[in-house]
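User: Structure with magnesium ion, tokens only please.
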Amino acid sequence: MSTVLVRDLKKFYEVREGFRKRRVVEALRGISFSVGRGEIHAMLGPNGAGKTTTIKILATLLLPDGGEAYVAGFDVVKQADEVRRRVGISLDVSKGFYPSLSGYENLVFYGLLKGFSISYSRRRAKELLELVGLEGMKASYNPYFTYSLGMRAKLSIAKALFSDPEVLLLDEPTLGLDVESARMIRKLITELAKDGKTVLITGHNMYEIEEVAQSVTIINNGVVVASGTPEQLKLKFGLLYKVSILLRDVGKDFIGVVKSSLPLEGMSVEDLGGSLRITMYVRSRREELVQTLLNLLERSNTKVLDISIKEPTLEDVYVGLVGGGVYRVT
Ligand SMILES: Nc1ncnc2c1ncn2[C@@H]1O[C@H](COP(=O)(O)OP(=O)(O)O)[C@@H](O)[C@H]1O
Ligand SMILES: [Mg+2]
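Assistant:
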């Protein structure tokens, strides 16, 4: 049985434009996915894809306009109280805390607001600080406003865990974090799932998320564009690289030679007046790609100013999935 089940979920926002004009934003156009118990599921997508909207609906903070969603078997609309008792949510890691109180005080205060006794709230706050690795950190006794972003992210997860919920909804828990803090957060999330928590996280970096998630749903523009295990998605996109080279004195036939030598999925050429920027999406193994590229550049008589080979961002991948411009071989 799925602990989180989303079926054909829809959400529209009405936005005002000017005095009388209104425009409807279709934030979710019918998305479906499910998450098994103890599983970490990642919802990936660029800004505006509909991730936060989905999380808010699952946390009963927003009502859907169509479709259904269940948490632990309870309907998020008809059984909102039951759902609320079973979910913990972390939305914007830097919001929802009192700046002048310490992390500990913030958690105790939150417990009191939730109706727990002072002694229980204190005990729980201590326990949670320990769990997320803030206890023992001298800095964690300072006021919240002095917290680093990494500490804030941990505290936000601690707060989401306060009522020991079955399901954790974490919206972009590693957003803006440095590499080390992000890794610690991912480790924490993995441990929580091992303890039986079902976790739904959002993000936009597939390469970061595949480390923690057992299954992934990629959404864009309010629709699911791909889903599967990270392995399945990696097979689909993992061998795709974004190559960018900046050249001067480019020979006439160079572009043609590039096109015939590399397994291109897309290419764009930008004339920067004097130099040329060539951006390519290449499906290849990295070593082969590097070799071919070096050979090509060596044989041509161009002056190479810059080279970069990167894994494409998810945005790049969507362009391919939804058929945008950059991806087409010109
Ligand atoms: N309160 C709101 N009012 C109007 N439009 C909104 C509101 N919240 C989100 N949207 C719009 O809905 C779409 C999905 O937003 P969101 O769920 O926040 O996406 P994500 O979290 O993936 O960035 C976007 O086009 C966004 O501009
Ligand atoms: Mg968001």
